[in-house]
Amino acid sequence: MPGAGTVTARFGSPRRGDGGSGPSWKGVFIRAPAGAEVHAVGAGQVVFADWLRGFGNLMVVDHGDGFLSVYGNNEAVLRNVGERVTA
Question: Model-level pTM?
Fold first, then answer.
């Protein structure tokens, strides 16, 4: 887990209010208290670190082999594009 908090949606679970026939969640959504630290789930390189409409302060880490992790709605982004991160 990238940080302490409550999982509010899991990958593949149906979105609320769609009766199960609509799209499913495409990630794991964690509600954490303000100021909580967020850590990368694995080593990789930051490929996006900026504000993005609908996601707030967003960071995307490329872990290689087609795997990305996305961290949105952060209070701040503390890494820059091109930086390497560890788990």
Answer: 0.80
Residue linked to tokens 């789930």: 41
Instruction: List the chain pLDDT tens, one digit each, 87 residues.
Output: 787 888 887 777 887 765 656 687 777 888 888 888 899 999 999 999 999 998 899 999 999 999 999 999 899 999 999 999 998
Q: Round to whole Å and give the CA distance between 10 and 48.
A: 23
First to last CA, the chain: 10
Using alpha carbons, select from 41, 73, 46, 81 the residue that is nearest to residue 61.
Answer: 46
DSSP code string of 9-39:
E-TTPBPTTSTTSS-B-SS-EEE--TT----
